[in-house]
Design a protein that fits this description.
Layout: E1 17-20, H1 35-47, E2 52-54, E3 59-65, E4 71-77, H2 84-95, E5 102-108, E6 116-119, H3 128-137, E7 144-148, H4 152-155, H5 161-165, H6 171-194, H7 196-203, H8 208-211
Parallel strand pairs: 1-4, 1-5, 5-7
Antiparallel strand pairs: 2-3, 3-4, 6-7
Helix pairs in contact: 1-6, 2-3, 6-7
Length: about 210
């Protein structure tokens, strides 16, 4: 008897490699564009995973157990944003990981400060780090978690987009982003336990700015 659509269960997407996008060096530390790096640091601290430079993977890398004893790998590419995909591909090739097991965390100007957006796939949306990731993985079908940094137009009408993303958060924004990072950890842990799709329905509508 052939299987019906009701019999086919959706495949759970469970991250095995979690990548935060950013630029290396003190010049870029704590900038909006580096919120992906901060997310990886928050996860590493929560799970007590040591991060260290790994030349083979062209990044800061660590592996250990996430929530529920699930094995995870964390990566902050040190290739600079535009070549992030090189580091991601180095890790996926070494561990023979499928693209759909890679969760990429990065900044998003089209989302206000305080918001997250999880997706199972999609285009780069003009983000150079994601363009590189898509090019090196050869597909757009891998999960991503975008962290809102607000638009340049609203935050600084006199500044261009580059100045905005390479700038730092205001004191008030920094307080909100600290809470956002707690939310990021929760969303990633939920994804590890129940899959990215369920985490999407739970976390995509939350707004930290309205809660503070």
């Amino acid at each position: 008897m052939p299987a019906t659509s009701d019999d086919i269960k959706p495949v759970l997407v469970i991250p095995q490699l979690i990548v935060g996008l950013g630029n290396p060096g003190a010049k870029y530390d704590r900038t909006r564009h580096n919120i992906g790096f901060e997310a990886i640091d928050a996860l590493a601290k929560t799970w007590q995973i040591n991060l260290a430079e790994n030349r083979k993977f062209q990044g800061i890398f660590g592996e250990g157990l996430g929530c529920g004893g699930i094995k995870v790998r964390l990566l902050k590419p040190t290739t600079y944003m535009n070549n992030s995909g090189q580091a991601i591909r180095a890790v996926t090739d070494w561990y023979k990981l499928p693209p759909e097991s890679v969760l990429v965390i990065y900044d998003e100007m089209d989302l206000p400060v305080g918001r997250l957006r999880l997706r199972l796939s999609g285009s780069a949306g003009g983000h150079n780090g994601m363009k590189s990731a898509i090019a090196h993985l050869g597909t757009q079908t891998f999960p991503r978690l975008r962290i809102g940094i607000g638009s340049a137009r609203e935050a600084h009408p006199d500044k261009d987009a580059v100045s905005h993303v390479l700038g730092r958060f205001s004191e008030k924004e920094a307080q909100i982003m600290a809470e956002v990072l707690h939310l990021v950890v929760g969303a990633v842990e939920y994804s590890l336990k129940y899959g990215v799709e369920k985490a999407m329905s739970l976390y995509n509508n939350r707004n930290v700015a309205e809660m503070t």
